[in-house]
Amino acid sequence: MSSPTSTPRDARPKTPPSTQNGASQASKPAPKPFPSVTGGCTCNAIRYRLSKPPLFVYACHCPDCQKNTGSAFALFLNIETHCIEIQTPTTPVLVTQPKRPGLVYACYACPECKTELWSANTPLGQVIADVRVGTLDFPGLMEPDVHSFVESKMGWLVLPQGARTVTRDFRFREVWPKSSLRRLDVCLKRAAEAAERTPTAGEFGGEEGEDDEAFERRRIWRN
Ligand SMILES: [Zn+2]
Ligand SMILES: [Zn+2]
């Protein structure tokens, strides 16, 4: 784990000690490993690891996020759902709840302590998760790339100088780094290909007594 003062995306793993004659090494440097970022729920029944750096980190100051968290804002990181590796036998359960007309809340939570771990209904669909940054072991590693809905930000909350802000929501294609957009496009393409190949639960029956939700859970966490 790198120093908690740097973000993982900025983390530059130390150069491994040279074991050979460094002077004659003209080959490409080995790819830098992503430092392991881990997290879990309050009761620790669920532990997870992110296998890639986040695509994007954002703080949302909208009234819905304030209500849902009971706090000043919500802090999320986006990552490909398949890059969240569950390390415990207990897996998150999908919790859906209509909050008000037009807003259905869907997230994965610990079945034991009910800690909400990541949202399941991002505008990008199930392939991208909105992980709740506070569930990381070192949430301070993730600084928001953007603050959205700043028009409803708490007046006493002063953002760092230079912080990127938007009123209302942002368009991810305008604010995500290019490398993240490339990862997103790869992910969406794979998901589209998989959808063409994979029969739905209904088509092949699924497992005995399994509803759509259970099928989806099994499909997502099987990797
Ligand atoms: Zn728990
Ligand atoms: Zn929000």
From TrEMBL:
Q: Where is the composition biased (Polar residues)?
A: 17-27
Gene3D superfamilies in alphabetical order: glutathione-dependent formaldehyde- activating enzyme (gfa) (3.90.1590.10)
Composition bias (Acidic residues) maps to 205-214
**Could you tell me which PANTHER family the record lists for this protein?**
CENP-V_GFA DOMAIN-CONTAINING PROTEIN, GFA DOMAIN-CONTAINING PROTEIN
Region of interest: Disordered: 1-34, 198-223
Q: Which PROSITE patterns match?
A: CENP_V_GFA
Family assignment? Belongs to the Gfa family.
Q: What SUPFAM superfamilies is this protein classified in?
A: Mss4-like
**Domain of life per record:** Eukaryota
Q: Which GO terms describe its molecular function?
A: carbon-sulfur lyase activity; metal ion binding
* Residue ranges occupied by any CENP-V/GFA domain in the UniProt entry: 37-150
Query: Could you tell me the keywords of this UniProt record?
Result: Lyase, Metal-binding, Zinc
Name it. Answer: CENP-V/GFA domain-containing protein
